[in-house]
Automatic annotation (TrEMBL):
Lineage top rank: taxon: Eukaryota
Upper classification of the organism: Eukaryota, Metazoa, Chordata, Craniata, Vertebrata
Native source species: Cirrhinus mrigala (Mrigala)
Record protein name field: General transcription factor II-I repeat domain-containing protein 2-like
InterPro entries (UniProt xref): RNaseH-like_sf (IPR012337)
SUPFAM superfamilies documented for this protein: Ribonuclease H-like
Amino acid sequence: MVKVCDVVCPDKKQAFLNVSLSRNTIADRVCDLATDLQGQLIEKGKDFIAYFLAVDESADTTDTAQLAVFIRGVDSSLCVTEELLGIKSMHGTTTGKDIFEEVSKCVNDMKLPWDKLTGLTTDGAPAMCGEKSGLVGRMREKMQRENCTCELTVYHCIIHQESLCGKTLRMEHVMSTVTQTVNFIRARALNHCQFQSFLEEIQSELGDVPYHTEVRWLSREKVLNRFFELREEICQFMESKGKDSTVIRDEKWLHELAFLCDITKHLTALNLQLQGRNRVITDMYDAVKAFQAKLRLWEIQMQQGNLCHFPCCQTITSQASNAAFPNAHFADKLSTLRAEFTRRFADFEAQKFNLELFSNPFAVDAEKAPANIQMELIELQCNSILKAKYDTVGPAQFIPETMPQLRLQAARMLCMFGSTYLCEQL
């Protein structure tokens, strides 16, 4: 490093020489940084008027359960702070009681007031969402003991819900064939090398098929699309290796593959919309509602034989074949998927009024609002200056300090976690 400094910035050489690279010194500095960050979060936490937690538990490479807890807090200025609250290694059991004790310790260590906690988003595991012995039930009991007036809002991660909805299509027979074929090609280096050489020999525009990983939701779309594009080449290669390709050449199976490719692409697009940091829950809810509306449209169009939003299905139907494309069958699949979305996102539907109150307070009926915000809401709706400001800056920045109840309501919406995405990025 010092030699590089002689060339790049010789005037800073002494500063580099003063840096201690002792492992003990570095370890102490890491601890100092962690302590400083914790102190900063404690200071910020004193100003929170509402905060929300996201909790996710998963096992690491040593099969040790790691509990990740994130916090999103909002202060009186409606400024949002999103930080890691803690990571706890759980070497024993991971029951609801164990998880609650670790989460409770994180909250207490940061000196966060329990009466400011507005909700919790989990990965949906039984130990998390159990109403009696699970984390959710124990959190509610704790808030009752602390005499908290705010009701705990609980969400199952939107991204998990969306992924589970896709499983209702019951097309495992298609995915299993794709996975087995891809694994045969990719699992052994010789087969993989020969397949790549085969594609080069026939001058294929596409170079390879990627692996499919079940826990990585977005890999499914890539695998399916590449498999569909290379379906003929894959058949030829499998036959050259003495493998039966009857299923892959079956027209009915190809129809199923084409539909699965298209619907998976749509689900992946929604999945990507729901990911990311600092996502406001109303935006995530809007994305889900838009997808449900799309499903209704696709169902009608599928019944009519209109495949304009299903390009792989169009490709299959454009090729000469003996089997008719099963429009009614796939319309039923879309109907089932739409029903599952409605069922799984019922808890968000229950919060519909609060979500609309935050996203567009000028359109809600003041009579349906809680009594503590009705007067402020009427004043807000009748203020033309605030209406013009709302159109410019959006819901989080225009509510004046003279309306504390509406600001508190906005803070509770801003701090909500719609998913455990941040936990899973660790």
